[in-house]
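Something for you to look into today, if you have time. Could you write out one complete protein record for me, on any chain you like? The space below this message is yours for that.
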Amino acid sequence: MKKSIYLLIAFIGFTLGAKAQNVAIPDTTRISLGIDGGFPNGNLSNSYNFGVGASLQVDVPLTEKLYFTGNLGYLSFFPNNNNIGSNPEAILNVKVANMNLLPVKIGLKYFLIRGFYIQAEAGESLLINKSAIYALNTNAFTYAPQMGIVFKLHHHNYIDGGVRYERTQSFYGDGAYNNMFAVRVAYSLNL
């Protein structure tokens, strides 16, 4: 009888251990700190060359492959050389300052296969320096589809690399959009 119980416990332990190996990584709530780079296109590329920043993201598991995400970031876009009065509200022949944004987004991340995911987020981008770039609005709706790969390092630490297309409504009330392609490389760990 005791031998059967020990065998049953061993079988359950091995089964649970094997199941844990098949779960998409990471398998618990994780937090990541990343470096972001943005490459404007469309209307935004008329005024700005590129943007750099940082972001903090939390991933909370809903199922084995589906995670809820919350993201808080900071991006600063640097004006190009011909950015002299190129936005609709700028003063003619006055160089425009950097555009500093604080995007706040929530979304979902789904692991298609081990380590490879697709993610969709939506939220608001807050314009920190509204008066410096002669904007009319302080915030604008933002959405960002993304895909990426999570590489396991050691003992619940990961490198998360992703690319995304981010679209933000204009801060000038003109119906235009600020679009960019962006990359994010982050160090993350399970909580």
